[in-house]
Amino acid sequence: MIPADDIDALRAFNRVYTNRLGLLDTKLDNSPFTLSEARVLYELANRTDLTGAELARTLRMDPGQISRTIKRFVARDLVAARDDPAHGRHQLLSLTDQGRSTYAALEQSTCTAMGALLETLPPVRRDSLRHAAETLTRIFTDTAPPQPVLRGLRPGDLGLVASRQAMLYAQEYGWTAEFEALAARILADFHTNFDPACEDGWIAEIDGQMVGSVFLVRGEAGAGKLRLLYVEPAARGQGIGDLLVRTCIERARAAGYTRLDLWTNSVLGAARRIYQRAGFVLLEEVPHHSFGHDLIGESWSLAL
Amino acid sequence: MIPADDIDALRAFNRVYTNRLGLLDTKLDNSPFTLSEARVLYELANRTDLTGAELARTLRMDPGQISRTIKRFVARDLVAARDDPAHGRHQLLSLTDQGRSTYAALEQSTCTAMGALLETLPPVRRDSLRHAAETLTRIFTDTAPPQPVLRGLRPGDLGLVASRQAMLYAQEYGWTAEFEALAARILADFHTNFDPACEDGWIAEIDGQMVGSVFLVRGEAGAGKLRLLYVEPAARGQGIGDLLVRTCIERARAAGYTRLDLWTNSVLGAARRIYQRAGFVLLEEVPHHSFGHDLIGESWSLAL
DNA sequence: AAATAATGTTGACTCAGTCATCATTTTACG
DNA sequence: CGTAAAATGATGACTGAGTCAACATTATTT
Lengths: 304, 304
Hints:
The structure is a homodimer.
Chain A: H1 4-19, H2 21-24, H3 35-46, H4 52-59, H5 63-75, E1 79-83, E2 91-95, H6 97-119, H7 123-141, E3 149-151, H8 157-173, H9 177-192, E4 200-206, E5 209-218, E6 223-231, H10 240-254, E7 259-265, H11 269-277, E8 281-290, E9 293-303
Parallel strand pairs in A: 6-7
Antiparallel strand pairs in A: 1-2, 3-4, 4-5, 5-6, 7-9, 8-9
Chain A binds a DNA duplex through residues 27, 34-37, 51-53, 61-72, 87-91.
């Protein structure tokens, strides 16, 4: 079930955008084209040998309207229609030279108008706007389900991991900043003592956004240690946790560890199940008071 | 000058949104209202005693069109118009009972349609969509320049600060992950030894987004230490750095420190100027090799 | 070979959007 | 105070958008 808040947010945006649509339209500058005409021109300029039906589909416009629009363009000598040699019923549409130069002028003026609009925004909002615009473009464009990808570490990742985990566990379990400090320290140590031969870290991303992580560090007595595994709630149930753990195990094996240890807490049920599935065995349970709660720490291990 | 990339991003979004607009419209469900009519209904339902001119302004529609639309609504007994007792030329518009129930039904069905659309998205994208929609709504709605606000620390802040600084200095100065580890360690220590009486941290926000930070910790011999000051590039030039430093100084004074120290690097010119303006004095310059570069560390101090 | 589907076009109709005009009323200003 | 300027609400005229139905023609499927 979709939360009403989500629906409201989208509807509010829809309203605002529609009310301010003029600000983003070609109508602003007194161009000789309507919005629909400009859209048709854009498609014709950026694709080759379109048919009318194809135009109607991509722009979600009425075929009849396309037909009439094209007729107007042909009359103005902006568009040339020639019969498709392969399909007798199809007509291949393309811009004439005049059509192309007219489109270029239109393009120029919309860019100028858009730039003027962006000029009015403070830089912080300009950045937010761009990011939001790119996000929405992706969401409306990519119909394929987003694939989670694993990647290596980049600058800024460590802090982000600590931050997301701190927020998550504060929200879900009420853990205090003590956990955040622990995570920050683990990550600081990770980098300070970093040995590329036998240590590593992975970030899981969807649409370029971090949705999970895992780290492999050197543990005690020839054992590797898996640390800071987490998956964003919204990204759970897609096997991302399994993927992260599997990757970590393989890397631990390649690094020559004889055993892979990890320490977790009994309340982290989702993580526990992932460890179980991966073959880890629960060795020890030790109650402790940390992060503002009475918890049961668990030591798990996997022979490699 | 606005980067062409920003303009392209916004235009691309504009195109995609327009092409898919139908998906977000009242047209989807076979409602008896056009988009414009639905917008007028919405305004009438959510505000009281609107005049036609007011409607035309908020919806950016032609007064003539409003006039005709209202006439249709009055004929359908959805809207009642009564003369304004104060202004003889004004007409106060409001929904009739039938208008209200019709609007409620419309509202219901658009919410359902919107929910159905959100259902098709994977949860990760749903979250992104919501966030982006809220951002854009704010940007198009708030015309007032965004005010930077200072706030205390919340879960997740520490990691975020470390992450942003690491990314920033990696980008601007090519600093290595060594800096990230240092930042993470400083923040871990901050929390581990946290003494609320004489230590503190502040986050500067614009539109709820972090754009800067500063921390006050206990230093040596009764002195306070200012650490991890930073301001996002896009938010610079608005006095946020000054505000952060001033806040930190005041807090240091209140905590009873006799002196406020800080350590920085000569390349961080913007920060240096902030310290100078705040009255800090450069005490010592020590060359060092850190973060992958030859740097000159600087010790500054301010008598309180 | 016949049924089915897609393509491009046209007619009919309503609403959107723009522009000009107008009567009326309110506000601003010398 | 009186007049000029501005705002309000309405209307006519016109083009294009959007929807629906119909149609001839050509491809595709069975």
